Amino acid sequence: MKKGIFLLAFIIGVSAFSNCDVKAEKLLNTVIKEKLTISKNDNLKYYTPEMDGADYYKYQIFENHETHTVKRAYIELDMKTGTAYKMNIADDKLEKIYQDKKSVCK
After folding, report:
1. For residue range 59-78, what is the model confidence (pLDDT) as tens digits?
2. Is 92 strand, coil or helix?
3. Is 81 buried (19+), middle (13-18) or exposed (0-12) by CB count in 10 A?
4. Where are the strands (E) in the chain, listed by range?
């Protein structure tokens, strides 16, 4: 009985974690499209996120060219609030750039 309860809790936990990953990627793609894309020719990509806790994702957004790579932004997603922040490197501060409360992970 205890093994069954543990297995059920584990499956629910994995399902919730995966669901949060999906929501984070969807929120990131919205932020890229609405806040970072300058022209139709932009081909912005991102690396696998660095995790800072279960609900906080950090991404590097870049353009990959034939001869070089251009880093365009550092984006952090707080999935507890559905908020996207962009790092202002010059001031070393995070600036809130987007929020979607439907993206919140519970």
Report:
1. 999 998 889 999 999 999 99
2. coil
3. middle
4. 44-46, 50-51, 56-64, 69-78, 83-88, 93-99
Distance CA 106, CA 83 (A): 14
What does the block give as tokens for 48?
């696998």
CB 60 within 8 A of CB 80: no
Contact 66, 102 (CB under 8 A): no
Per-residue pLDDT at 54: 85
Residue pair 57/77 in contact (Cβ under 8 Å)? The answer is yes
pLDDT score recorded for residue 40? 82
Give the model confidence (pLDDT) of 7-51 as tens digits: 444 444 444 446 899 999 999 999 999 999 888 888 899 989 999
Residue 54: C-alpha distances to residues 24, 57, 88 (Å): 11, 8, 24
Q: What is the residue-wise DSSP string for 73-84?
A: EEEEEETTTTEE
